[in-house]
Amino acid sequence: MFQGINQDALEQAFEHDPSMPGKFEGEPAYVVYYWHCMLDGDGEEGEDDEDSMRFEVNESELRMFPELDGSQVIEIWFPDSGFVYSALYQCK
What is the DSSP-derived secondary structure letter of residue 33? Predict the structure, then answer.
């Protein structure tokens, strides 16, 4: 698993405007970040859905996205609608 910050993904995340229509509409910047990490081959296939990916939140990512505090895993899924959705989990 990737343990640093994916700089290309980070650039895409900080250019994101959640109020703009499109694939990431209404989603926070970290969803864009993890989507681009997935495109670079990071993440693990989600447990319940073949159209989802799970990521463990590392310390570097937590510093970049403090709103992830308290979450250990983010799952993003991408149904046929073309939109991307997310959920945060506290796994113990």
Answer: H
Q: By the 8 A CB rule, do 18 and 25 touch?
A: yes
| Interatomic CA distance for residues 3 and 57, integer angstroms | 9
Q: For the sheet with 85-89, list strands across it.
A: 44-45, 52-56, 73-77, 85-89
pTM of the model as a whole:
0.83
CB atoms within 10 A of CB 53: 20
Run of H or E residues at 86: strand 85-89
Which DSSP letter does residue 67 get? G
pLDDT tens profile 11-68:
878 788 888 888 999 999 999 999 989 988 899 988 766 689 999 999 989 989 999 9
17: region left, alpha or beta (phi > 0 left; psi from -120 to 50 alpha): beta
Q: What single-letter DSSP state applies at residue 30? A: H
